[in-house]
């Protein structure tokens, strides 16, 4: 399993710096917002958590369709599915998702504080957004794996993955943003939405790999 | 034990599309007539129902809004059960049923949202609020549309059916969220007032028309569903015959 994890990491590192493109996309989305809403620093500080969350959500959705596609093209996906007698396929998928998260979503979380400074957010707000992104982006990856597995056989499934997955990640976005706002605005609590966010992540950590493994078994060629 | 085996036998009998179509042919006119009669009675009862002391005439929107909302959830449940049928029992008609139900469910969801916002404007003063119930029903609509897109995207219908079945089962999480959203969160939408542990809180003069309308629309749903399934089976047959004809033409 450790070997699979390392293989995934080195693969994503070698194939054209996918992680870097994700971070660049995140940067571009966040940089576009001030042009859209105007360079009012107070307004930017107020909607900052929401911008960072939406940017991170879009950036992680974009990279999702490559989760199984590269393995399908070189045939190693068939091997992984065939090996399910020895390794439980859902667990293999879980490792793949965790590796994908480390290589694609973790850089977004690391870049978030810097972008928070650009949006004139307070330090406590930046810390809260980074913490919620750290807790919430795995959930996006776990749900996204279902969509990625279902659309693996399609030549251009990227857009369809986003359409299928976006309704399901809305709760993640709601609780992530409300926890981030709870840290900044006084009457709103931080901890309850943050704990619900953690619960969603744990819930999808079970459902996502199971459903994705079922999908890979069912619609493999 | 005996009953269960008989029942599975009946279900497997229906796996034969010809037998299913002959059954559907017999059922469809009756269902259509029953739906028409029930909806006519229901509409008459709705228009003769007394006005609410607070909401006035707008309460009549309830007689269509609530059945639409119930059906939007029931239709997704039908899809989820069909998804189980596709994945677990590999019933050949389960994917036909799931595929046929998705557009009907999407239309019911759109109607529920539209009538709800027509009702919300005079009562709440706004067409739309992003509260838990409305948002979760909107998510339901997005999932219907996503399922339809997935069915269309796959060139092989059986592969598309299995993909859509897995997505539908994962998306079923949303149904209890819709049901309990009014209890879990403090929403503008009112909590459940018909199916409650302590009995309905609607006055019988308003409850009866609502019930007749709900049953009428449910029958209407099954009428549409059977017709759509029949059409889908014919469409697949036509496709298969075209392929055979094309192969013969080549030879």
Short key terms for the protein model shown above:
heterodimer; A: 221 residues; elongated; B: 251 residues; 8 helices
What does the overall shape of chain A look like? elongated
User: Number of DSSP strands of chain B?
Assistant: 0
Q: How far is the first residue's CA from the last residue's CA of chain B?
A: 52 Å
Largest sheet of chain A: none
Radius of gyration of chain A: 18 Å
Question: Which blocks of ≥5 consecutive residues of chain A have pLDDT under 50?
Answer: none
Total domain units of chain A:
1
Order of helices and strands of chain B: HHHHHHHH
**Spatial gap, N to C terminus of chain A:** 25 Å
In N-to-C order, the SSE pattern of chain A is HHHHHHHHH
What is the rounded Rg of chain B? 21 Å
- Total count of helical runs of at least 4 residues of chain B: 8
Total helical elements of chain A: 9
How many beta-strand runs of chain A?
A: 0
- Report the sheet-strand fraction of chain A: under 5%
Find the structural class of chain B using helix and strand composition: mainly alpha
Question: Could you give a short description of this structure?
Answer:
The complex is a heterodimer of chains A (221) and B (251). Chain A is an all-alpha fold and 221 residues long.
List the helices and strands and how they pair.
The complex is a heterodimer of chains A (221) and B (251).
Chain A: H1 2-14, H2 18-37, H3 41-64, H4 66-73, H5 76-82, H6 89-118, H7 123-150, H8 158-184, H9 191-219
Helix pairs in contact in A: 1-6, 2-3, 2-6, 3-6, 3-7, 3-8, 6-7, 6-9, 7-8, 7-9, 8-9
Chain B: H1 2-14, H2 17-48, H3 62-89, H4 94-124, H5 132-153, H6 157-171, H7 174-184, H8 204-250
Helix pairs in contact in B: 2-8, 3-4, 3-6, 3-8, 4-5, 4-6, 4-8, 5-6, 5-7
């Amino acid at each position: 399993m450790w070997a699979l994890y390392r293989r995934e990491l080195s693969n994503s590192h070698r194939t054209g710096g996918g992680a870097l493109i994700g971070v660049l996309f995140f940067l571009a989305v966040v940089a576009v917002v001030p042009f859209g809403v105007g360079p009012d620093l107070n307004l930017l500080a107020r909607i900052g958590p929401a911008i960072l969350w939406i940017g991170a959500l879009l950036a992680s959705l974009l990279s999702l369709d490559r989760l199984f596609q590269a393995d399908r093209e070189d045939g190693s996906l068939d091997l992984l599915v065939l090996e399910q007698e020895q390794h439980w396929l859902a667990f293999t998928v879980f490792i793949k998702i965790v590796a994908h998260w480390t290589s694609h979503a973790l850089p977004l979380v690391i870049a978030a504080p810097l972008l928070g400074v650009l949006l004139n957010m307070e330090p406590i707000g930046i810390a809260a957004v980074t913490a919620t992104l750290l807790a919430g982006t795995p959930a996006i990856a776990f749900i996204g794996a279902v969509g990625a597995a279902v659309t693996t056989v399609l030549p251009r499934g990227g857009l369809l993955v986003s359409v299928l997955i976006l309704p399901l990640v809305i709760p993640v976005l709601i609780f992530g943003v409300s926890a981030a706002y709870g840290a900044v605005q006084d009457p709103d609590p931080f901890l309850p939405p943050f704990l619900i966010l953690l619960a969603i992540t744990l819930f999808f950590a079970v459902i996502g790999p199971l459903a994705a493994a079922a999908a890979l078994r069912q619609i493999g060629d | 034990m005996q009953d269960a085996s008989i029942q599975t036998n009946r279900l497997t009998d229906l796996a034969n599309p010809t037998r299913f179509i002959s059954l559907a042919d017999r059922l469809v006119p009756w269902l259509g007539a029953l739906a028409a009669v029930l909806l006519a009675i229901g509409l008459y009862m709705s228009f003769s129902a007394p006005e609410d002391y607070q909401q006035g005439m707008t309460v009549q929107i309830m007689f269509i809004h609530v059945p639409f909302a119930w059906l939007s959830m029931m239709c997704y449940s039908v899809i989820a059960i069909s998804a189980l049928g596709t994945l677990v029992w590999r019933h050949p008609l389960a994917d036909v049923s799931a595929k046929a139900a998705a557009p009907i469910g999407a239309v019911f969801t759109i109607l529920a949202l539209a009538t709800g916002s027509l009702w919300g404007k005079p009562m709440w003063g706004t067409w739309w609020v992003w509260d838990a119930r409305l948002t979760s029903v909107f998510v339901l609509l997005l999932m219907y549309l996503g399922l339809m897109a997935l069915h269309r995207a796959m060139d092989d219908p059986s592969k598309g059916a299995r993909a859509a079945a897995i997505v539908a089962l994962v998306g079923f999480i949303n149904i209890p969220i819709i049901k309990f959203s009014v209890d879990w969160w403090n929403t503008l939408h009112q909590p459940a007032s018909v199916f409650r542990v302590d009995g309905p809180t609607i006055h019988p003069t308003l409850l009866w028309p609502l019930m007749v309308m709900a049953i009428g629309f449910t029958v209407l749903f099954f009428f549409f569903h059977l017709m759509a399934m029949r059409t889908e089976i014919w469409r697949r047959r036509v496709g298969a015959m075209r392929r055979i004809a094309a192969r013969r033409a080549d030879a």
